[in-house]
Every structure is written in structure tokens, then in C-alpha cells.
Amino acid sequence: MDVLRWGFLPGSFDETKKYAKAEEKSFSMNRGDYVMKVCFCGLGSIGRKHLANLLRLCEERKLSVEIHALRNEISGQSKYESISAQQLDRLLAKQVNDPALLDQDYDITFITNPSSLHYSTIAAMAGRTKHMFIEKPVFTDVNERVSDLNLGIDGIYYVAGPFRYSEVIRTLKNAAIEEQIYCARVICSSYLPDWRPETDYRGCYSAKKELGGGVALDLIHEWDYLTMIFGFPKHVFCMRGKYSHLEIDSEDAAFYIADYGALAVELHLDYFGRAPRREIELFTRGGNITGDLISHTVSFRGIQSETPKILTDISFQETMDDLYDREMKFFLDHILEKKPLNNVEASLRILGLALGKELP
Known about the structure:
Blueprint: H1 15-28, E1 35-41, H2 45-60, E2 64-70, H3 85-91, E3 92-96, E4 106-111, H4 118-125, E5 129-134, E6 156-159, H5 167-178, E7 181-191, H6 215-218, H7 221-230, E8 235-241, E9 253-259, E10 264-270, E11 272-284, E12 288-292, E13 297-301, E14 314-315, H8 320-336, E15 341-342, H9 344-354
Parallel strand pairs: 1-2, 1-4, 2-3, 4-5, 5-6, 6-15, 7-10
Antiparallel strand pairs: 7-11, 8-9, 9-10, 11-12, 12-13, 13-14
Helix pairs in contact: 1-8, 2-8, 5-7
């Protein structure tokens, strides 16, 4: 097992250099007095995180931006928010609670409201914006018709997936290419009441099925990176339900077995694990490879080699904020360089996996 061939040992994978070239090219295309008009549909925690990253990136590139927002009300403030309510008031050039009151000519629209509202919001904004950044999951119903949304041919429609920019996942993807993998075991387990400190978990969208809550949709990141590593499975067997003491009406656990023909994947998702875990373990002919998405490490066990140095565990100096930042750079680069991108249909297939409903 030659890890060096994967090209992801510490120091060998420099995202900064990769994006620096794109930023230089993008900047040269956007000098002048043009103001990029951006609309956020929803400004909860994830919306504010994306807004903060967008503003920071635009400042670095000397791009002018005007922010509008569609939101029902100003939510309560937590010290864990990326942007405070007071800061939002100063940043927003316009905020309304009715889509009809929004402008008709946005460069970018961020769909960051509750998942259950994504489809209707995308439909309402399709004719008002050139490009979209859509928070996961893309929809909550696999029967929604993408063709009815009338998305622009030249538009960029990007459905979020920050773990695509994780060096842990990239390392495992390369390992999957190089090694004979028999199966993979994946777990994402954490305690929902600990997710949003200073708030009552019973009132958050994760706890409410009608808003798109529940582990199958909330933790769809796992299926996103699994399809990045292995592609789409031939068959998926799924069991979902409410099993714990948590006072929620959404599903608090989901269990999957995915058949890829040459390998199998088992996936465990839950809201009730008191010790947070987010790991993927690959069982290979030569031994086990484990990626930890909380500690950002990759470890190797039971592997025989004449070069012990090759098997040194890898610890990446990255955080979740780094992944979100890389994702925003990727999205903005595609817009500024006019590089077509639309992963809505693929994201709908991933939604089908999460719900245990296979799509062609």
C-alpha cells in the first residue's frame, strides 16, 4: 500500500496554490465599478456562515457586492453565529419577507432556508437570478421535477457539499482507486441538543419533520462524499425511524447497506450519540484505512510494508471552516470564469439514496 502515490501526505496538497491561480484569473476579469448583486433566501446559521465567507472572499478580491435577503424575521442571536443580527442590519441593503418584493436581476441567489422550502424558493427565484448556491439537501421530495424549475442553460446551479473539499475524503478517494476495497463502514453520530448551544433543540428545524429535519436529510453529507469516493451503488437497503428519548418528531436514526457489486458499504446516522463520531473505515486487502472527519486524520492499521514511513498516520491542518471557505472559492471561481456547473440532478439522486429510494 503506497500512500505516497496518492499525493496527499502533509504538505503535498496545497489548496492555497491551487486557488491562488484561479483568484488571479478571476480578479483580472472583474476590475471596474461593477457591483455584484446577491440575494440570500434564509439567514440562519448556515446562511450567515456562507455570507461571512462570501464577504471575506469578495474583500480579498476587491469585488464590490450588494446583499439582499428574503427572510421571515430576525432570529435570536447566539455567540456561535458567524454574523450577529446587528451586523446583518448594517450589511443588508434590502430585506423583505415576500419574494415578490425582491429585485429581478440578481447575479447570485443563495438558497439557505429550511429544506422543505427549497423547491418552491428555487422556482420563485429562477427567473430573477443568473446563478444559485443551494444548501443541502437540494429538495426533500425525490419526485420533484427539475425540468419544471426552468433553470437557465448558462447558469451555475451548485448544491453544497463541503466534505468534497476535505483532504481526508480526497485521500480516501485516491486510496479507493489504488487499493482493493472489500467494504466500508461509515458512522455519523452526535447528540442533537449539543448542536446549537444556547438554543432549545426541540425548536430547531432538525427536530421538525415538516421542515426537512431528520438524520436522513440533515446528514446527507455522508451520501455526498460516499458517491464522490465510490460512485452510486447498485442497490440500497434502508431502515429509518425514531428510537431515542429526544423530544422531536423527525427521524433520529437511519441505517443503510449499499451494494456496489464489488464492495459493500454500511452507513449509520443518528442524533443521539453522546460521543461525537464522524468516520469512514475502508477494509482493504492490505489492512484498514480510517478517515476521521472530526479530527481530520487518516490512519492505517494492520498493513504490512517494507517502508514504515509510508504508513505514518496523516493529520491534516484543516477545520470545517476551511472546507466551507474552499467551497465558496470553488463556487465563485466558476461564476467569475463562466465555467458551466449544474449538479442539481446528481444531488436529486443522492437525495434518493438518503431516503432509501433508488433513482435511475
